[in-house]
Q: What sequence folds into this?
């Protein structure tokens, strides 16, 4: 099938907006993606025609809302190829998924003197929850270093794994450098020592086919809003044998079997981890988004974005004073850069005046910024609807700003 990006763009009303009288060039997809009509319409339709609280109702609408919600779980399961829907927990997003895991895993598995391994290129969301848990438990955070090219130092990982290591937490794709990490190899090495692995999939799920059984990771987290779905919903995948062992994260409705003032027993998976009314409209819309990208074909999306990234790198490298951070052999649709000594904030602000939306700053990866010896970068990140013409607009914009300075 030919991937027709102009056809695809028609599904995204926001892309025809003008910003300061210029066509919007949206290159902030790493932060959040725009929503296709299909996703927004699924939400409107559910609120207009179905809305009722899930699970607890005998009435028709409650049944229908529950069916949509649970069908969405099956869609997520299929999308990441989990074994069972018991392994799919709905959360508010990657951050909540990791907080849930850090809390529950910490309670059950971590003792004083134990260690948790993260990588030097993690987002704060995959650092701080582990740090908080380590502080509570008297455990230590250890860090897999990276090379100057922005790749994991796998040999160093070997040295970090030992009998006190409880879990390894690593992003599949860096939200700053675009590095695609060899997470399957990380899992293999950790599993040789019976250590479980969490993969942060926030930046991989939108761009490539993910198969959690093939990766063999024990936990996997991602956000709906970065994969063309709504805000406020995300997923934590966990192998059933792990989730069975971990205690609940929050208490309340739906996560219980029986409650008395003496003792509460907990619901079965996945509900044990889902206290309170879930955002059932968002879960349905997330499933709609996953069906949408599946319909386009993840391999087509990946090929399109890889081509776009290659083209952007090639053109950007020709700009005088251009410094691109990260030069991993395998990389994704994220490009962090600085031009000469132009401050990233100035660059971002001036690009915005040209209708070009990029992100500036530390990208919630302050330890990585410190490793790179910088305070921030400008980041352009591509999505399935971006075009070469938009890359050209970015390059011309950067050139124009460079000449101003
Ligand atoms: N991990 C990575 C790699 C990310 O890029 C992000 C979002 N910037 C997050 C975690 C956090 O995602 P969310 O804010 O949707 O919870």
A:
């Amino acid at each position: 099938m030919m991937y027709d990006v102009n056809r695809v763009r028609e599904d995204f009303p926001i892309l025809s907006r003008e910003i300061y009288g210029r066509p919007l060039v949206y290159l902030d997809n790493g932060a959040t993606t725009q929503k296709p009509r299909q996703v927004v319409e699924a939400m409107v339709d559910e609120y207009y025609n179905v809305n009722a609280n899930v699970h607890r109702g005998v009435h028709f609408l409650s049944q229908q809302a529950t069916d949509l919600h649970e069908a969405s779980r099956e869609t997520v399961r299929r999308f990441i190829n989990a074994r069972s829907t018991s392994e799919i927990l709905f959360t508010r997003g990657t951050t909540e998924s990791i907080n849930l895991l850090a809390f529950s895993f910490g309670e059950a598995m971590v003792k004083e003197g134990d260690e948790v391994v993260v990588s030097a290129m993690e987002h704060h969301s995959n650092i701080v929850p582990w740090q908080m848990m380590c502080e509570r438990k008297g455990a230590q955070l250890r860090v897999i270093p990276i090379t100057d090219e922005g790749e994991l130092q796998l040999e160093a990982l070997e040295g970090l794994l030992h009998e006190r290591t409880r879990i390894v937490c690593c992003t599949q794709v860096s939200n700053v450098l675009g590095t695609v990490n060899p997470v399957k190899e990380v899992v293999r090495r950790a599993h040789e020592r019976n250590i479980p692995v969490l993969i942060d999939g926030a930046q991989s799920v939108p761009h490539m086919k993910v198969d959690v059984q093939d990766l063999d990771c024990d936990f996997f987290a991602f956000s709906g809003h970065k994969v063309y779905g709504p805000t406020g919903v995300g997923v934590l995948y966990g192998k059933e044998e792990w989730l069975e062992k971990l205690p609940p994260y929050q208490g309340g409705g739906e996560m219980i079997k029986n409650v008395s003032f003496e003792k509460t027993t907990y619901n079965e998976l996945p509900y044990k981890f889902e206290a309170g009314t879930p955002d059932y409209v968002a879960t349905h819309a997330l499933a709609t988004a996953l069906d949408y990208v599946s319909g386009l074909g993840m391999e087509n999306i990946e090929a399109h974005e890889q081509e776009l990234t290659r083209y952007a790198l090639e053109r950007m490298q020709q700009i005088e004073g251009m410094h691109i951070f990260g030069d991993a052999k395998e990389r994704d649709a994220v490009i962090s850069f600085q031009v000469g000594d132009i401050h990233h904030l100035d660059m971002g602000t001036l690009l915005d005046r040209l209708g070009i939306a990029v992100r500036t700053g530390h990208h919630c990866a302050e330890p990585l910024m410190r490793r790179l010896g910088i305070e921030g970068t400008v980041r352009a990140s591509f999505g399935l609807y971006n075009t070469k013409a938009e890359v050209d607009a970015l390059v011309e914009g950067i050139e124009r700003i460079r000449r101003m300075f």
About this structure: The pocket of 4'-deoxy-4'-aminopyridoxal-5'-phosphate is lined by residues 93-95, 123, 125-126, 171, 175, 200, 202-203, 223, 364 (CB under 6 Å). The domain at 41-294 is CATH 3.40.640.10 (Aspartate Aminotransferase; domain 2).
